[in-house]
Amino acid sequence: MTTIKATCPGCGEIDLTAEDILLRIGSQTSSNSYGFTCPDCGDFVEKPADDRIVRLLLSGGVMPMLMHIPAEALEPKQGPPIDYDDLLAFHEVLKRDDWLDELMGPHPQ
Ligand SMILES: [Zn+2]
User: Fold this and answer.
1) Separation of CA 59 and ligand 1 centre (Å)
2) What's the pLDDT tens digit per position in 6-35?
3) Model pTM?
4) What pLDDT score was predicted for residue 107?
C-alpha cells in the first residue's frame, strides 16, 4: 500500500495511507481540499489542495469526494426573479414552432 506523507501542524511529518485521506473536489480548483485525522495527536487537519496535490493524492489511490455545486448556483445573477408574467411569456413562446431558435438566440456565423 502506498504511504502518503502529510504534515500535521503539531506533529510534523506523518505517514498516512490512501484510506486516511479525505479529498474533496469542488467545482473550482480553489475549493479543492484534503483532510486527515492525525494518527499521532488525533487532530483533524484540513488543507487546500492545489492541482499538484490533487494529482499526487489521486495517484496514491485516494478516492475523491465530489462536492456537487451546480454551475448555475455560482453564476452571477442579474435582473429581477422570474415572475408569473415571465412564465406566461415562456408558455407563449413554447407554442410556436421556432421556440428553440428563439431561446437559443441568433446563431453564430
Ligand atoms: Zn498531529
Assistant:
1) 24
2) 999 999 999 999 999 999 998 777 889 999
3) 0.60
4) 67
Report how far ligand 1's centroid is from the alpha carbon of 20 (Å): 13
Dihedral sign from CA coordinates of 65, 67, 71, 75: negative
Do the beta carbons of residue 43 and residue 37 sit within 8 Å? yes
Question: Pairing mode, if any, of strands 44-48 and 64-66?
Answer: unpaired
Give the domain ranges of the chain: 3-69, 80-104
Tell me how far the alpha carbon of residue 2 lies from the centroid of ligand 1, in angstroms.
Answer: 20
Contact between 7 and 18 (Cβ < 8 Å):
no
Do residues 34 and 18 make contact, with C-beta atoms less than 8 angstroms apart?
Answer: no
CA of 4 to the centre of ligand 1 (A): 15
